[in-house]
Amino acid sequence: MSGQRALRPETLAVHAGRTADPSTGAVIPPIQLSTTFERSADGTYPGGYVYTRSDNPNRSALEHCLAALEGGAAAAAFASGMAAISAVFQALTPGDHVIFPSDVYFGTGRLLRELMAPWGVAYSVVDLTDLDAVQAAIQPHTRLVWVESPSNPLLKITDIAAVARLAHAAGARCAVDNTWPSPAGQQPLALGADLVMHATTKYLGGHSDLLGGALVLAQADAFFERIRLVQTIGGAVPSPFDCWLLLRSIRTLPYRMRAHTDNAEQVARFLASHPAVAAVHYPGLPSHPGHAVASQQMQLWGGMLSVQLQGGAAAALRMASRVHLFTRATSLGGVESLIEHRASVEGPQSQTPANLLRISVGLEHPDDLIADLDQALA
Ligand SMILES: *Cc1c(COP(=O)(O)O)cnc(C)c1O
């Protein structure tokens, strides 16, 4: 891989993890569905594969590609984003303490509170945009600071390099959920983070048709070996077909992310200028409080934004009910635009403003998207 580091993301996305199939010359590698691999007479495995839970050609090709795209030393692919996040916390030791953001992805918060805390992983919840609060939350047993930037659904920006420095000074790792920006939009390892997590379900998959997760580590160290153990012995591995689909989608990731960003910027500007709108949260807007930090640490702003309406929850629900091109659905990162009233999804303990709609801007023409939003707001 070292020879590929200097290549640009577009080139890596096309070439990393791709080799012609030696048995046929096929340019696109086949899907290897076999669960088991034959030993030679001398007892060795000529292809290096033994059993598909331990490793599979489609999975290792995907892992090579993901490590190259994030500039990491090693990657591990999982059956979902949540399985990848679980593996990080399962690789810790009871008694370890982690810090995570107050507006962390809903599932990550539940995982820590409801599954990991009973197993002995202690945690503190902090506004990670406040570096003094991060410093104050560090304890003698703090082993990990979990970052999500931009955050969900207010797109708050955390200074990844600064949080990584605080974590390292305390002997802790810095992990970044990089799902929203994707490796084309933000490279946390280059900013000093130790670990990057992806819900590959979202932009890496890009077409809302597969569930997956991945971890990329800066070092192939003992912590990575623990994660590999959780992957192969815990067994939450992705299917060969999902790995193949994912690698197919990744080939176009840098171009899709540019188009998602161009479209989202135009939608954000339109919404910010509309009289019915109270606030637009998009890091690419100069008015966003995290714009300066985002300008330093992001290459692309991405396709996610949220909007708050003047007319409260009723106005938000009315707008969501009147769109035609946007689909009312959860999730993000596909070619189709989605819109969602987050407070309804999150339920009674939700902290999300009731007048907020979250939008995943897809790859339709931006003028068509803006016209649809305009008529929905009329
Ligand atoms: C979707 C998502 C996850 C969880 O991924 P799944 O594939 O649904 O398990 C984690 N973090 C973020 C930011 C996400 O958007």
Please outline the helices and strands.
Elements lengths: L8 H7 L41 H14 L3 E5 L2 H10 L6 E5 L4 H11 L5 E5 L4 H7 L4 E7 L11 H10 L3 E5 L4 H4 L9 E5 L13 E5 L4 H13 L5 H11 L2 H20 L4 E5 L9 H7 L6 E6 L2 H11 L4 E2 L9 E3 L1 H5 L9 E5 L5 H12 L1
Parallel strand pairs: 2-3, 2-4, 4-5, 5-6, 10-11
Antiparallel strand pairs: 1-7, 6-7, 8-9, 9-12, 11-12
Helix pairs in contact: 2-9, 3-4, 3-8, 10-14, 12-14
The chain binds pyridoxal-5'-phosphate.
Structure notes:
The chain has helices at residues 9-15, 57-70, 81-90, 106-116, 131-137, 160-169, 182-185, 222-234, 240-250, 253-272, 291-297, 312-322, 342-346, 366-377; strands spanning 74-78, 97-101, 122-126, 142-148, 173-177, 195-199, 213-217, 277-281, 304-309, 327-328, 338-340, 356-360. The chain is α/β, with parallel strands linked by helices. It has two domains: 9-250, Aspartate Aminotransferase, domain 2 (3-Layer(aba) Sandwich), CATH 3.40.640; 253-377, Aspartate Aminotransferase, domain 1 (Alpha-Beta Complex). The strands form two sheets. Strands 1-7-6-5-4-2-3 form a seven-stranded mixed beta sheet, sandwiched between helices. It is globular, with a radius of gyration of 21 Å. It starts with 8 loop residues before the first helix and ends with a helix. The model is unreliable at 1-5 (pLDDT under 50). The protein binds pyridoxal-5'-phosphate (PLP).
